[in-house]
Amino acid sequence: MTAAAIEARGLGKDFGSIRALDRLDLDVRAGEFFGLLGPNGAGKTTTVHLLATLLAPTRGTARVVGHDVAQDDLAVRRAIGLVFQDTTLDRDLTVQENLRFAARLWNLPARLAVPRIDALVRQFGLGERRDDPVRTLSGGMRRAADLARGMLHEPRVLFLDEPTAGLDPRARRSLWELIRRLREASGLTVLLTTHYVEEAEPCDRVAVLDHGRLAALGTPADLKRDAGVASLEEVFLARTGHPLAESGAA
Amino acid sequence: MSTRAVYGIVVRELVRFLRQRGRVLASVGRPFVWLIFAGAGYAAVFAGRNEIDYRVYMAPGLLGMVVMFGALLAALSTVTDRDAGVLRMVLVAPIRRGTIALGKVLGATVLATTQAVTVSVLLLPLVHLRPSLAGGLLALSAVVLSSLALGALGLVLAAGIRSLENFAGVMNFVVFPMLFLSGALYPVRHLGPVLRMVAYVNPLAYGVDLLKHALLGAWTGAGYGGELSPSLDVAALGVFAVLGLLAAAPLLAREGGVTRTAFRERA
Q1: Shortest Cα distance from B137 to chain A (angstroms)?
Q2: Distance to chain B for A32, nearest Cα, Å
Q3: pLDDT, tens digit, for every residue of B60-103?
């Protein structure tokens, strides 16, 4: 596949008088692990929701695996997986029921869905809990179930919007391990948003967003070298003139 | 249109409903509470007229009431889905907004129809109403059509609402005028012109009227049967259902529901 996984040109979104995203130009290559780094309110979630067709752009255009987000929203949604900041699972249904529900929404016939659910549940360490209501699961397991839901239809591009928010360090590590294995297995393109610099470090490239504007873009190594600093934290300070404030959980 | 997605949405509505035992019992028990308390009171007012036992007169209205509560309260799931985030999972699926609305309305229809059928099995023998086969089938059509129309109305009301408290408030405001202006408890034609006008923009009035055609045919001469023509009832319910579906689909996906609130929280 030669086409870019994600191309945004002058993409922007206003909410009334609030300029959530100014004019973003972005190219994410197929198979890339791409990070959007910035503090809360920088426009990361807005960017993801624009690319996922959940919001209509105020200006500019974007294509995801070649499909225009404004004109071909169904094709875009078919090609992507999206794991939201907060769980989207039905807490009253079991893990299995949630995945069955998702499989039907994604129009997967049972003969495809059943073996895939079995495989994902095992792969994500949810085997013993598959018949338990989601509300009884720990935060880490819930997140794993969310990720299983996002991967069920085998998307080509996976959006992870602050996936580790509210997770303890151990759950974070196992989530990253899962994502690493998914990328290795399928050449999946991953776009991650985070306000934790350490989560952006392993990315192939990082875009630094601040106040709805692109402040810097490059590999973590290039960004640090160009700014003459030792960490992405300092890159943020050097490019925006203020520190990446948040340090705790969202 | 993905029929699999519609089916998935309907199945989920059913599973969720059946797990809420209190709600299941309340939906079946509620009409009998009305039959006992409202029935006793109105029967006393009716006393002295022998054309029809008030409890018989009330039966179609009670079935209409079951449909109303069943279909409108089914929209609760749309409010909780938005609140709990499940709506986002549905909105990011590769289906049209209209498919989601149709799934929700059909889910409400299955719930309300099942409740009304269950209640009629208990209620009709109790008041000694034995509809003919044709009457029974007409009653079933009335129940299904009313469920569609009221399910769509419930979805329109729920689609723009964020909190359960707000939904409960709106429902109380809608439910009682709708019930009293439906002909469920007394004939609409005795109302003044203004209230009668209001009654005719009330989907439940057409549903109850059709149920009276189905169940009270024997009392039409005495003035207790349906007042409008059955085909007008059917057409009106169909129009309400279609308008409701068309109105609800864009409301479900309103930006405010997905990202804007999230953005405000963070900004």
Answers
A1: 32
A2: 22
A3: 999 999 999 999 999 999 999 988 889 999 999 999 999 999 99
Q: Which residues of B touch A45 (CB under 8 A)?
A: 259, 262-263, 266
Residues of B in contact with A103 (CB under 8 A): 8
Strand positions, DSSP E, A38-167: 59-64, 67-68, 80-83, 157-161
Residue (of A67, A60, A65) closest to A29 by Cα position: A65
C-alpha span between A94 and A106 (Å, rounded):
18
Of residues A18, A56, A105, nearest to B95 (C-beta)? A105
C-alpha R_g of chain B: 19
CB spacing of A45 vs B255 below 8 angstroms: no
Please write down the HEC assignment for all residues of A22-39.
EEEEEEECCCCEEEEECC
Q: Would you call B90 and A40 a contact, using CB atoms and an 8 Å cutoff?
A: no
For residues B259 and B92, the answer to whether their CB atoms sit within 8 Å is: no
- With CB atoms and an 8 Å threshold, state whether B91 touches A45: no
Inform me whether the C-beta atom of residue A87 falls under 8 Å from chain B C-beta atoms.
yes
Q: What are phi and psi of B236, to 5 degrees?
A: -65, -45
Task: Search chain A and give the residue with CA nearest B253.
Answer: A54
- pTM of the predicted model as reported, rounded to 2 decimal places: 0.90
Distance CA A200, CA B137 (A): 64
| A93 at interface of B, judged by CB pairs closer than 8 A | yes
Rounded CA separation B182/B64 (Å): 9
Question: Measured over all CA atoms, what is the biggest interatomic distance in chain A, rounded to whole angstroms?
Answer: 55
What per-residue string of b and e applies to A94-129 under the rule 16 or more CB within 10 Å gives b? bbbbbbbbbbbbbbbeeeebeebbeebbebbebeeb
Provide the token pair at A243: 């520190």
Residues of B in Cβ contact (< 8 Å) with A54: 88, 91-92, 258-259
Token pair of B179 as six digits: 């019930």
The residue assigned the tokens 């997967």 is: A108
Cα distance between residue A150 and residue A148, in whole Å: 5
**Residue B239 zone, left/alpha/beta (φ > 0; ψ -120 to 50; rest):** alpha
Q: Where does residue B245 rank: exposed (0-12), middle (13-18), buried (19+ CB within 10 A)? A: buried
pLDDT in tens, A184-234: 988 899 999 998 888 999 999 999 999 999 999 999 999 999 888 888 888
